[in-house]
Design a protein that fits this description.
alpha+beta; about 210 residues; eight-stranded mixed beta sheet
């Protein structure tokens, strides 16, 4: 029997279409980014993030550093070079990867042969494939402590912050959040992701031949 959970507090937030007013190079007026900042500042214990693209400006990195200094533990899962479908976006992240690590956050990069995603394939399908498919991350999810879950379209990059019309649902529920957080942490385990350090990144894990 499946438990039905009723949630009393859910918010929906979206940017105004055309928030790039063309008066400035990167536009602006991001309601979604402002809300994410507000929620992140409420964290007392942890922030867990999944994002396919991770391009942080100097100002973004300073904000992360401030949150870490307050005692919050921040973990981010993003695509590796081997699992990424957008090399231009990856290069923006790659240039600043060490600077991101300097903020004190933990970074994990999604494996293209991630074990947990293989479970969605039937044995019959898996056995007929000539090779293991490349899996990529496209979820945009964040949890704040064990109480708040954010699911939406926002990538942690300047396009989402300044140009694109983004939207997200904010769920205030310990039960939902603990379940979502557990799943996100599972995808950061060693069989599903590589942890990036100043001494290691998985760029060399790209498969060069089919």
């Amino acid at each position: 029997m499946r438990l039905v959970l009723f949630i009393n507090h859910v918010e929906y937030t979206s940017d105004i279409p055309g928030k790039n007013d063309r008066k400035r190079f990167l536009g602006g007026g991001s309601i979604t980014k402002d809300k994410l900042v507000e929620l992140a500042e409420q964290a007392t214990d942890s922030i867990i993030i999944q994002t396919p693209y991770l391009i942080m400006t100097k100002r973004d990195r300073a904000f992360l550093h401030k949150l870490v200094n307050k005692g919050g533990k921040i973990k981010i899962l993003t695509n590796s070079l081997a699992s990424n479908d957008n090399l231009e976006a990856f290069s923006g992240y790659q240039r600043n990867r060490d600077a991101l690590l300097d903020t004190g956050i933990e970074i994990y990069e999604f494996r293209p042969d991630v074990r947990i995603r293989q479970r969605v394939m039937s044995d019959h399908m898996y056995e007929r494939l000539p090779s293991v498919p490349i899996f990529g991350l496209h979820a945009k999810t964040m949890t704040i402590d064990d109480n708040i879950t954010v699911i939406g379209t926002y990538n942690f990059d300047p396009r989402s912050a300044n140009l694109n019309t983004e939207s997200m649902t904010i769920i205030y529920s310990p039960e939902i959040t603990q379940d979502v957080k557990s799943s996100m942490l599972k995808e950061m385990e060693v069989e599903n992701a590589w942890q990036v350090t100043r001494d290691f990144n998985p760029d060399g894990k790209v498969r060069l031949s089919k």
